[in-house]
Amino acid sequence: MRLTMRERHGVVNATAKRYQHSTKKARGQILDEFTKLTRYGRRYAAWLLTNWRRRRVLTIGGVRTVYTFGLKKARKGRIVPKRPRTYGADLQRLLIQLWALSGGLCGKRLAPFIRQTLPVLQRFEEISLKAEQRTKLLAISPATIDRLLVAERKKYRIKGRPTTRPGSLLKHQIPIRTFADWDDAKPGFVEIDLVAHDGGFPASEVIHSLTLTDVATGWTEARALKTKARRWVLEALADITAQLPFTLLGITSDNGGEFINEELLAYCKEHHLTFTRTRPYRKNDNCFVEQKNYTMVRYAVGYARLTTEDHLNCLKKLYPTFGLFTNYFLPSVKLRKKTRTGSKVTKSYDTPQTPLQRMLLHRIISPTAKARLHHQYRLLNPAQLRREITQDQNRLSSLCDSTHIQKTRRKTKYLDSIYQ
Which CATH number fits domain 171-418: 3.30.420.10, 1.10.10.10, 1.10.630.10, 1.10.10.60? Predict the structure, then answer.
């Protein structure tokens, strides 16, 4: 027998109060009886019984209005004016520009990036702000940043294939180190890794990128290699070592044959470097450099197949500029501790800082080196660096004509019109 609408309202009115004051188990039994009698869908029935005779605030036509459900005629309460937006369209536009300049940082990293970079951009006259806009941008929270940028964020996850092949020689001469063994109290101990630009078709005769990351400060450098041959690895490592603002003390690599060989072992002995390797098939042992393979290489270059001399020259021009922008202006966080309570893991991170800031805080870095770093920082214009990076990326994209590069660079599509 099907109930009329008036009869259904009577059943709802008689059941709602009992449902709202019952336990979870009892509500399930009441819901079974109610849906069987009224033939309502279970989800709608639960919503109806929960909200019956309760006041709810709805936004209709841009006006917040108070309604009471369950009456013969919904009673319209007082009209509450909509709260004005603290961050309007003009602030959102500026925020998108700064987000694009940073390369698409998350809110927790973008907030310190804005506070550090905004005065620099104004000093170089790259951005024009009113006093009120400047105050709001410097005070904006990470949560608000993420909320305002929801519509602009487009994530493209393209996974490449690993090309590491085990190097069986000399393994007994190179000790194993895990991620928990690092003493990151001072700069100089680094992790290195290779990234293959094979376009998803594994091959050794393609261009590779060598990534080097300092464990203590996060200082990262990348260099382009013609192939993964040992001679190019040593040449790139020597070039990076000459440019580092600290003394190289130790190297850790994976078990690939491009690293586990007599040439690199002899190089480390000659320069008095500690040479260790990770456990096979344990990528997390090399976690500090593995996480930089995306931000320094994949995000900047993409996943296209690179083989020609023009590709190599373009990468050699791109990486030094991208390294300056990353090390001097992009904040990053470091894991301080990890606590496990049963199955729940709680992670605690430090305050976001740039590699430059971490470098200046270390006592091991000499005052002369710190003064040189600070002088270099004063000369750098982040907007100009981003323009040069975008120009090199566009040139590489035109050489490759690859949708992979276009996808990984979609986040910075605003830069051509904003900073040129």
Answer: 3.30.420.10
